[in-house]
Every structure is written in C-alpha cells, then in structure tokens.
Amino acid sequence: DVKVTQSSRYLVKRTGEKVFLECVQDMDHENMFWYRQDPGLGLRLIYFSYDVKMKEKGDIPEGYSVSREKKERFSLILESASTNQTSMYLCASSLPRGFSYEQYFGPGTRLTVT
Amino acid sequence: KQEVTQIPAALSVPEGENLVLNCSFTDSAIYNLQWFRQDPGKGLTSLLLIQSSQREQTSGRLNASLDKSSGRSTLYIAASQPGDSATYLCAVTGANSKLTFGKGITLSVRP
Fold it and tell me: Of A58, A48, A59, A61, which is closest to residue A97 (Cα–Cα)?
C-alpha cells in the first residue's frame, strides 16, 4: 500500500514565524503535491514537484516555498506565517506521466496561525 | 481553465437507498478522473480512478462512469449505509498532471 505521511496532524504557530510542513512517501513516486483546503473554496494546488530539486507553482503559490532534496520528501515552507494561511494542508504523491497518475494523499495538517 | 462542478453540495438519504453523485467538468482534455472520499478532519481516500479511455470502474458497491465528450461523471453507490456518510470529491487530471477538484458533495445516510 502507498503511504504518504505528514509530520504533524495539528500545528499552532504565531504570525511571522517560519513554518515547515513535511511530507514523506514510501512508494518511490516522482510527483509530489501540496494543496490547501478551505471551506467554500475546496482544494487548491500550492506547488508541485515532478522530480528531485524540480518544482512548479500551482494556483496559489504566494507566501509559500517548497523544497525537494530527496525523492521521498517534499517540504512546504511558510516564510512568514500569516493568519490567512490558517488552513488544512494536504500532501499527495503520484507516478509520472505514462502511468496511472492516481494521486495518494496524506492525512493532512491542520495549521492555525494566531 | 478547467472547472469541476459537483451539485448539490449536500445530500441526505435514508439507509438502503441507491444513489448517484454527479460531477461535471468544462475541458474534456483530461488524462483521468478520480473520485475521493473525505471524512471530517481527515485526508482524502481514493475510491476509483477512471482513465480517459475507459467508460467505468467498479469497486464493491461503488460504480463510477465517465463520459468525456459531455464532460460528465457519476458515482453510483448501491444500498447506502450510515458508514458511507462523508464528503465525496471528484477531480480530473489534466495533461500537466495537475488535479482540479470539485468542491465535493457532503453525503449523510440516515439510519
């Protein structure tokens, strides 16, 4: 079974703090994704990566950066957390183009910025 | 830009009923379509994946169909149970491997 894990289920941070959200997958997937989910807005793609050290902006990259130094790990960084970044953050992984492209999700991190 | 719509936003049915959840998308150039289930406060669980060349997929009491030309998919749940209560999301994968999600249908199955 594919397993995607996220470092924290719940996180509370203060405005202005630098925040790291970690995601690890154990299926040797090339593609990894970060989404945020908000009531009424649904899931929105922040960033994705199709290979180590490669990244592409999603629909809402402002205020975020990412790091992928190893294939299995994809980190989301909030350089200076703000209250409007309070949200549920979901990580996912998938095989690359030419395969099934089925995305597997982690359990999510609920981040509260006060 | 791809848009995915799921209507209605919420549905309440009595236990045992067969039901259909609808999903529509605006751009038919998709790679696949996935149906997910999400329980409150949890991550997404993949239920069914339909490749663009397929018409349907089945898993247990679930059957998903895809009509790419009309931009529609349906998720059929047979003999619904209270344990089926959750939010069901539809998502399509474009050529760039990005998923575009609908906002989901929150299903409540009454005992």
Answer: A48
**Selected residue with higher pLDDT from A85 and A95:** A85
Helix (H) or strand (E) holding B108: strand B105-110
Side-chain half-sphere exposure of A31, counting CA atoms within 13 A? 23
pLDDT confidence of residue B98: 80
Q: Say how far apart CA B75 and CA B65 lie, in whole Å.
A: 7
The reply to whether residue A102 touches residue B49, judged by beta carbons under 8 angstroms, is yes
What does the alpha-carbon distance between residue B65 and residue B110 come to, in Å, rounded to a whole number? 26
Instruction: Check if A106 contacts B (Cβ < 8 Å).
Output: yes
A92 HSE (CA, 13 A, CB side): 28
Q: What DSSP letter does each residue of A21-78 carry, written as one string?
A: EEEEESS--SEEEEEEEETTTEEEEEEEESSTT--EE-S--TTEEEEEEETTEEEEEE
Q: What is the mean pLDDT of residues A12-32?
A: 95
Mean pLDDT value across residues A13-19: 97
Cβ atoms of B37 and B104 closer than 8 Å: no
pLDDT-derived band at A55 (thresholds 50, 70, 90) equals very high
Cα atoms in the 13 Å half-sphere on the side-chain side of B31: 16
Indicate yes or no: CB of B43 within 8 angstroms of CB of A45: no
A24 shares contact with chain B (CB less than 8 Å): no
